[in-house]
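Chapter review. Work through the record for Lipoprotein before attempting the end-of-chapter questions.
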Amino acid sequence: MKKGLLSILALGALAVSGQAQVTRVRGGYMLRVKYTKGQSIHLDSSNTAGGLGKEMAGGKLQFKMPITMNVLNVKDGYALVQIKLGQVKSGNRIVNPGQTAVVRLDDRNQPKDSETPTNLGATLPKKPVKVGQTWSGSVPVSTGMGGGKLNATYRFAGLKMVGGKSVAVLTYTLSGFATGTGRITLLASDGTLNSNEMKLSIKGLGANPITVTSLMTRG
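Structure tokens for Lipoprotein:
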């Protein structure tokens, strides 16, 4: 597996995995993160990567990866969060042992300082947003080959019922050394992540772009 691909794949899921509360206020909906000490969130990620070249049969790889976020503490407006990317498996074969990081995040899911790993994806809006409204963010990501920043544009698509649950829907586009689109649903009751679908084309990791499709759901 290409070095740094794990960071890219975690991009969408970790963006809103805390309690990004969906609160109706004057002027629209407020999206904020409210982490709770002791909180644990489990996600399952199913992925297909293409354009991997001769190192993979057919240039493609299908694999699954568990993701766990453990909130270690909440203090002075920041949550100390341990992020575990579990073993990446293709069938019964382990293709990456996974990795662990600890980050400090504010109520917009932004890291406390530049030394914190920042492959977290979304920037929550500063102000309330209306249905159809967009906002932008810059996403620093390390690929293991220099990395760079992704420019992200998010759109609040409103509330809908999915599987008997009310969810808030966010769509997004990414541009930079990787381009892509995605769709996130959050449980409207507490804002926790319900699902994330993402398609990416990653440049600069080899002769050809790597294409990734990813579906992340609550475990």
